[in-house]
Amino acid sequence: MPPSSKLSGLITLAVGSLALYGLHRHFKAKEPQRAFFSFHYSSDIWRTNIVRNSGVTCRDPARAGFFDHSLWESAKARGDAEVRRLIDAALEDSEVTVVLIGQKTYKSRWVRYEIEKSIERNNGLLGVYIDNIRDAQGRTSRVGRSPFGDIADDVPHFDWVEDDGFSNIREWIADA
């Protein structure tokens, strides 16, 4: 092969490699969408904060769709309409709803409301079991039932500990 053909072949190979690298980066580096996190507040707040404080849920963890305790308690004290307003406002900019599933999550009427509103909004849905995360006393809990039940089919579920949520939640959210 003449030198100019070799050079042309190398250039074509290099351009092709760069194009593949660009495609690879495009698909591998998806930014996660804005996520809303749903959970049973009173029983799962410790484990939920482990997920929240992992710092991988979004670039700005303060915008990760969590309510602080005072905001939640204040809304509850004002009644159901205020809680619904708070949830609706938090869902406003979200594209994915991540339900953190603990032992009692399926019993929560607010989690059910959040799932139903998320479906109305066409949010992606994702379930993450948090029962294997150790609480303040170092204990895990029993696995809770999925709260999606008869509300939504084919929702992907992961386990925060067994499926390495710390490393994978961005991808789970992006794929939802």
Structural overview:
This protein has about 180 residues and is an alpha/beta fold. The protein contains 6 helices and 4 strands. The chain has a 4-stranded parallel beta sheet, sandwiched between helices.
Chain-averaged pLDDT: 78
H/E topology pattern: HEHHHEHEEH
Shape: globular
Strand element count: 4
**What is the CA-based Rg, rounded?**
21 Å
Question: How much strand?
Answer: 5-15%
Distance between the termini: 50 Å
Helical content class: 40-55%
Uncertain regions: pLDDT < 50 for 5+ in a row?
A: 4-29
Strand-pairing-aware structural class: alpha/beta
Provide a count of the helices: 6
Strand arrangement, largest sheet? 1-2-3-4
Main beta-sheet strand count, sense and barrel state: 4 strands, parallel
Write the topology of this structure.
Blueprint: H1 3-28, E1 35-38, H2 41-52, H3 69-78, H4 80-91, E2 96-101, H5 109-120, E3 124-129, E4 157-159, H6 165-175
Parallel strand pairs: 1-2, 2-3, 3-4
Entry summary:
With 176 residues, the protein is α/β, with parallel strands linked by helices.
Which key features would you list for this structure?
single chain; 176 residues; alpha/beta; four-stranded parallel β-sheet; 6 helices; 47% helix; 11% strand; globular
